Fold:
Amino acid sequence: MDPTTLNCAECASKLSELLEGFLTDAYNDDSWRDLELIAQHLANSLRKRHGPEDYHTPLGSTTLPQDLTSLLGVALNGAPIPDDARAPAVLEILRVGANLCVDHDQNRGNLLEAGFPQAVVSLLEGYSELAPSSPRANPLPLSISHLEVIKTAIGVLLNTSLGFNSVKFRLISLEVAMTLVRLSSALYPVGSWMRCTTNLFPDDLAPEEAPILIAESWNIRISLSNWAWRLITELRDDEHPLFDPQVLPYLVQPLIAFTPPLLTAPPPPNFAHPSPLRTNLLQADFELLSDSCSQLESLALDVEDIRLSLARGFLFPAEHQDVPCLLAMLDFIEQGSYAPLWYVQHEASFSMADVRNQEKAFDDCKAAVIKAVVEMSGEDKNTDVLVDGSDPTKPGGSYVSRLVNWIRNFVLGGMHGNARDDLVICATLSLGNLMRRELQSTILLSPPHNIAQLLSSEVLLSRSTDIKLKHGVIGLLKHLSQASCNSAPNRVALSNANVIDRVLASGVLDERSDAMADVVQVNAIGIVKHLCNGSFDNSLKVILPAEIDSPPPTGLSQVLSLVKRSDKVAIKSEGTRIIVNLVKSLWSNDSPKEYRSVEEIQVRQRKRDKAITVLLSPSCTEALVALLGRSLKYPVLVNEAVVALSLLSTHRDGGSLVLRAIVAPLPAEVMPGIPNSMTIPATPSTSSEAESPSIWSPGARHRPPQNRALDHLVYVLRNVSKNDDAAGLRSAATSYPNEVRANVCSLFGQVTRHTSGGDVDALKEEVKPVLEDLSRHSQGLGREMLGNAAKRVLDMWAQA
Structure:
């Protein structure tokens, strides 16, 4: 019988008849050849989806989907994979299934209901059991017929799942992605053709057949790996990761292949010269590298177990079957490069345009691995694993030492000596994620690392430094300065390295950096804020101009300019907190050291007086009252602004300056949009709560109209908000702690101590009733501090 004379329906009927014969033992093994030919003809006929006649829909409604599943089971006869005799028939059964559902959701559903995709997954799992338990350098020997079966089985899963979620979800639940990775890695280890010549088949080949069959084997292996990763990409689901840590040893194999010594090894004799096959192999290697890097990045971003496993494996190789995954990633970042054979000029090789595209794509691969390393370093649970203090010769451990060495080598290379800023970006971002506590920061700031000296070098922080590099460097410095707030040696190390000077001179606070440097500017502000806190010398560096001819703008002027022009609340608020710390530092006692001479003490006092004069400016007081105005939700910020204004008011020239700022209208950007109908209640809260456990003030929709800092301050004192009940009031004593309200009282007393005039009279008239109520109702239950503060102000006003 010639199967080519049959139409599709007749072929399907014959397959059903053959199945019945196999199940009843009516047919022997010779009939598998008939099945192969019939299925082959049917598969060929179904390749075209949109022909003159629709065969797909009627065939999908017959028993064909179930027959295909049953035939596959009979062909395997209980074995995980077919024997050599039945492999060609299995291939054609798979081809029928693959072509039956091309662009046909109804048939995809019919095949799923018949269990065909599930049976195909089991078949692939059977082949995967032939692979070693861990990745190997050489490809798994397999005949052409079995390679074709695997390739077509993957094609079935691709066709059934494309755009069809029911199959997609079933494949995810069967964990087919890991099976595909194991098969792809076993059958086509990236770069294996550079080491392997004929070890592709289970049996020896005849010399005359070897070149042709070897080329065919490589081409099939390339295709099935490509299809496997295409299917993995289709199955990718952000909410349900496809992989767990066991995939990591497989994902780093392409990275190892693109890193010396494998990268720079000469090709074997049979691939010593350019050919279309060699170009295909080079392209396949790179595509698998790209797929692996993409997976590493997404898994590190989304899966905690992946991040934890990478760190554990760095110390305990058995975590990944003795494959050093994180080390391979670091080696790839540092040493990985473009394949040398890309640049061999030949008609069968890549064009120069192709090479340029691949170079750019390769750089993207490195960027993906860098992101994975940075994310892994940012996992809190990894800090104690990656920062290892057990080896005194490598403080912080091998991981920390290697990252620091990347930074050191870059600095030693000088301004024009290297182009590896990607290593510094990876190192600074990773260390910044790790160094969030004092203990870890001390390791970096102490010998032998002395990282503050490196980070403050002109090579890393100059006006011409790329903003991406500044982002990493300034971010790390911010974490170091923040974690060192309570460590005098760490603060000294940062100060001696002139970190503040270098940050202010780097241009990151300039207007030209605004468009792309919001995060960098916030971090730079954080450095200055933390290092000025309680530091007289650092505060002078920010306030006073450098003692040189034509000094650049001072740090304070840069901060004030940035705060004024920025529309980012974080920049405005954090920038103003620098002023708060400057004020507190200059108003604190600069404890004299024994070695200081009288002359030196006098010089420091003159600098203090000069710096205080600079701070006593409308620009500083206006910034402070703006911080107060926009921060009603944050009592901590309200308190900082109040304390700084109070300290400024203690100066003979400060009271009137602060008073004018308090009673003047606030800038439009900090004025709340509240209907004018909302009025301030006449009496303050008398809640029995002694202290606020919450830091939140009433919501904006309850807030009365406040156009001046004075109105905000009175609002803080009252500590009430509007309600819809009949009384119109409710207690809001949980909004502002009594300590903050007591500080507001002190501000009113201080600002009116040495001032007079209409503004003072108006302030007293508005504030006095509130203070009187607080004085009467703030006794007992731990509220004496607030009542006493109000009473002291009233007593002072009464004596005036």
